[in-house]
Design a protein that fits this description.
The chain is mainly alpha-helical and 119 residues long. It contains 6 helices and 3 strands; from the N terminus they run αααβααββα. This is Transcriptional regulator.
Length: 119
């Protein structure tokens, strides 16, 4: 039993070090912010014709489920990449646009594309 406890303690220490690294490394944090199947596609789609309404985004991103689109839009909004504007109209109109932080991300995404093509 004592060996298992030591192994458990060692694993907890390693996990804590990994979590500390991920939480304190700006590059890791940035990658975590934009990672996911749809995030960069949504950012680039909005950037191509800003602002965009939800229905247009859904149409532009062929295979995305409505719930997935909603979730990813909320995540990007919470991370300060997108801004959501609700207009007091009937029927309600919601538009998504890039924030300054989102706009500053675009050249980085372009560099990532270039980097990927050189592999």
């Amino acid at each position: 039993m004592k060996n298992n406890t030591n192994i458990d303690n060692e694993l907890n220490t390693v996990e804590k070090k990994i979590n500390d690294f991920e939480n304190n490394c700006p590059v890791q944090f940035a990658l975590k912010t934009i990672s996911g199947k749809w995030k960069t596609s949504i950012i680039q789609t909005i950037a191509s014709n800003c602002p965009k309404r939800f229905g247009i985004l859904k149409k532009d991103l062929d295979n995305i489920a409505q719930g997935t689109l909603t979730t990813v839009l909320r995540e990007l909004e919470n991370d300060g990449i997108l801004m959501r504007e609700v207009f007091p109209e009937i029927p309600p109109r919601v538009e998504y646009s890039l924030t300054d932080k989102g706009i500053r991300l675009l050249p980085i995404l372009e560099e990532l594309k270039k980097w990927h093509t050189t592999l």
